[in-house]
Design the sequence.
């Protein structure tokens, strides 16, 4: 007897896998960034004090950099799934934001080698020399390009993603873009470890909401070019006449 009818088609398995992969990465990526903030020992604004904190916790500092690398890669994979979720007949603001954030995540991955170099430097160079090297690197034009690229693509991308999600009906629950915006704005004020952990936790919550939206999509809808059933904008408030017309 044939058992083909009892086994799901291979393409269905592929759809399920791609959805679960994107959703999982959307949660695990920000979770790794949260863990990075939690274990990072160096937070001082003063270069000399910062390097002293690195020297005192060199292994944790490198672990934080590695978690940032893993988190950035996983987040980038998850954002590919977000772009797929938002796919439709026209490019949306949320898609542009997700694409920019994806590029920003690639920039973020560059933090790991910087952390390794800092950790090795504080062990092999005297304190004064390491301070001079660090400040020279920070003043380098290419370093400035790196950090500007990171801020512009990641932060601006997440802002555009949040605004786009708010405008695009059915893409995610309304609280997702709100929490995402709070997380992005909070990042600019997260000069302490506690504030950094809080903003990272908010990012985890927002991305988990997006992950839930991806999981809720059926395999059939995921395979369509327009994944969401209605790619329109969120409706504005209507008056009594409009409400009566909608209910008719």
Sequence:
């Amino acid at each position: 007897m044939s058992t083909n009818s009892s086994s799901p088609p291979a393409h269905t398995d592929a759809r399920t896998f791609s959805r679960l992969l994107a959703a999982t990465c959307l949660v695990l990526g920000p979770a790794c960034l949260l863990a990075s903030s939690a274990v990072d020992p160096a937070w001082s604004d003063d270069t000399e004090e910062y390097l002293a904190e690195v020297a005192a916790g060199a292994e944790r500092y490198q672990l934080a950099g590695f978690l940032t690398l893993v988190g950035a890669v996983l987040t980038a994979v998850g954002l590919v799934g977000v772009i797929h979720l938002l796919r439709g007949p026209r490019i949306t603001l949320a898609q542009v934001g997700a694409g920019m954030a994806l590029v920003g995540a690639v920039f973020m991955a560059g933090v790991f080698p910087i952390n390794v170099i800092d950790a090795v430097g504080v062990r092999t160079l005297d304190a004064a020399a390491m301070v001079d090297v660090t400040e020279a690197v920070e003043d380098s034009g290419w370093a400035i390009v790196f950090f500007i690229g990171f801020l512009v693509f990641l932060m601006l991308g997440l802002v555009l993603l949040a605004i786009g999600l708010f405008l695009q009906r059915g893409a995610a629950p309304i609280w997702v873009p709100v929490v995402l915006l709070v997380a992005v704005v909070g990042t600019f004020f997260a000069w302490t470890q506690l504030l950094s952990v809080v903003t990272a936790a908010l990012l985890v919550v927002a991305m988990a909401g997006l992950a839930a939206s991806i999981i809720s999509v059926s395999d059939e809808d995921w395979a369509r070019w327009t994944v969401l059933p209605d790619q329109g904008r969120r409706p504005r408030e209507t008056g009594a006449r409009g409400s009566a017309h909608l209910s008719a």
